[in-house]
Amino acid sequence: METGIVGKSTTFQKIGKGIATTKARHGVVTPMNQDHTAIECLIEDFYAPDWVDKLDEAKTNIDERAAIARGGAWAIGRKVDEQIFTVLDTTTEATVTITVTNRATIRASFAAFVEALWDNDVPNDGMVFGALTPRAWSQLSLLEEFSNADYVGADGQPYKVGMPTGGKFKDWNGVRWTMHTGCPGKGTATAKLFVWHKNSIGYAAGAHANNNAENDAIRADIWWSGERQAHLVTHCMSGGAALIDTTGVIEANIDDTAAISVATAP
pTM (2 decimals)? Predict the structure, then answer.
């Protein structure tokens, strides 16, 4: 992630692979000459404002400004996630199909899903992430390999800790999985899942004060309008995402309308 960007765009550098070579005694080493590719990342501005009327506040038993502020913060967070999913969806790698006929097909499909990433020589270094729809998470949770203590630690048992969301992850098969309702097509027959290496995508935040695109804790700007006799509760962000290396992102399609599979065919 890059922060403090001045202007409407920035660039991320994609560094190619190098090849190690030998040299003779006292000989000259051979440079790898790794490719360098500049990836442009466009920055966009977004706002999430809402009015809170002074007299309306007197007619409710909740903290209206706080409630509106939470809604604005969530809207900004969803926008950042949407930007990231949009660039993940531009990967040119072959799409994997997740078959949910029974537990055996689910197991094989997810094995192939992750294998496609390793097959691209992506490092298994703890920086690989996966995003699942709620239904995909439920399908996986029925597998012993995903839920049983013989395969996962106590902190990874889904029926104890629930679905990982909001920055929480479950480590399984070399991937840090999370459930995300922002997965494209969630709840449809053409839902999309992703696994990716962290370095394969980039996010850039603009250089303005209190830019919520670069903050984990999102802050609201609240000010009084005498003309409207109301408070304006505003959140804003300036940021953008870019796909740096398409080989580090794998997409999978899954039928999110399919019933949760209870078939146990081996």
Answer: 0.86
